[in-house]
Design brief:
6 helices; alpha+beta; two-stranded antiparallel ribbon
């Protein structure tokens, strides 16, 4: 049974239209394990040479499905979706060097304030960016 937060995300999917989510090597391995050709469904990152991000198709993430008739959006990779997607709406603030909630693109950010305040979740975002992606 989806939580209220999950229901809000599934009804919205603003963060998936379009996306520049960086994909870690482990993300690419999970995508390939699901049977996708990584070369077809991802593209080189424009901002971070050597990294990849999901291809946008029609101004939306390649993996975004829906909405169905009267139904929500969903990710075709779920529950194996990328680490950054799992941690969203936490994002990295380059000015402060901290994990913060994305108030610009997530219209439901208020529902995630306690989620974003979790020190373990914040540390995980910084770990992924530092250790898996090498961008901080």
């Amino acid at each position: 049974m989806p939580t209220e937060r999950e229901k809000a995300c599934m009804a919205c999917a603003a963060c998936c239209r379009p996306t520049e989510m960086l994909l870690a090597p482990a993300d690419l391995a999970r995508i390939a394990a699901r049977g996708y050709d990584v070369g077809d469904c991802t593209v080189p990152s424009r901002k971070h040479p050597g990294l990849r991000e999901p291809r946008s198709v029609g101004n939306r993430c390649y993996f975004l499905e829906g909405p169905g008739p009267g139904g929500p959006f969903w990710c075709s990779l779920y529950p194996d979706h990328p680490a950054g997607c799992k941690l969203y709406p936490l994002v990295y603030d380059e000015a402060t060097g901290e994990a913060v909630i994305d108030k610009q693109y997530c219209p439901h950010w208020k529902a995630f304030q306690d989620y974003a305040a979790d020190p373990a979740r914040r540390a995980e975002l910084l770990r992924v960016l530092r250790d898996e992606l090498g961008v901080i």
